[in-house]
């Protein structure tokens, strides 16, 4: 089991914690991690882009000039793709980009992402994260104490003071054990977990 230091909000080491290898010590499956990221990005796409083909643009019902004898190249319609105002070749149409992964594949991908953060030593465990008031400055001070800038902060339970204090920081995202995903874990440089968040993640995914 990986042994990780536990810090307090002042950035001082106050102990250590053993992470469950079933969640934080698996063999990293790069293919499933990549697939999970593509899945999440694809599922976010609206797929509403649309353009008209030559069959759908208005006009162009008659041949612009006779076939031979004008010196021009032969043309059948003023709405062919090479004409201004003509249709689009292989015009994009509304479509659904989403696809699915098996539940086991999703879990392996998530565990792989968590394991990669442990292996890269980009994980911090806090004994607790409690703020007495909604104050962005106080939250930034906690991150500065940990020497962390771009971070995904996972708390064990919903804390409005923490959520609202972090909301205005563009390089920080708050989450809960049930809402973490592969894309966010990899997007942010550091993963900051509270001890109770670690316990809940291990309880859900072990």
Summarize the structure in words.
It is a single chain. The protein has 206 residues and is of the alpha/beta class. The protein folds into 2 domains: 2-45 and 98-205, Ribosomal protein L4/L1 (Ribosomal Protein L4, Chain: A, 3-Layer(aba) Sandwich), CATH 3.40.1370.10; 47-96, no CATH class. Helices cover 34% and strands 15% of the residues. It has 7 helices and 6 strands. The chain has helices at 21-24, 30-44, 103-119, 136-146, 160-166, 182-187, 195-205; strands at 2-7, 13-19, 123-126, 151-154, 172-175, 190-194. The protein has a 6-stranded mixed sheet, with helices on both faces. Helix 2 crosses helix 3 (103-119) and helix 4 crosses helix 5 (160-166). It is elongated.
How are the SSEs ordered, and which strands pair?
Layout: E1 2-7, E2 13-19, H1 21-24, H2 30-44, H3 103-119, E3 123-126, H4 136-146, E4 151-154, H5 160-166, E5 172-175, H6 182-187, E6 190-194, H7 195-205
Parallel strand pairs: 1-3, 3-6, 4-5, 4-6
Antiparallel strand pairs: 1-2
Keywords: Ribonucleoprotein, Ribosomal protein, RNA-binding, rRNA-binding
Function: Forms part of the polypeptide exit tunnel.
Subunit structure: Part of the 50S ribosomal subunit.
Number of strands: 6
Largest sheet, in brief, is:
6 strands, mixed
Class by helix and strand content?
alpha/beta
Mean pLDDT: 92
Helix content: 25-40%
Subunit structure: Part of the 50S ribosomal subunit.
Keywords: Ribonucleoprotein, Ribosomal protein, RNA-binding, rRNA-binding
Function: Forms part of the polypeptide exit tunnel.
Protein name: Large ribosomal subunit protein uL4
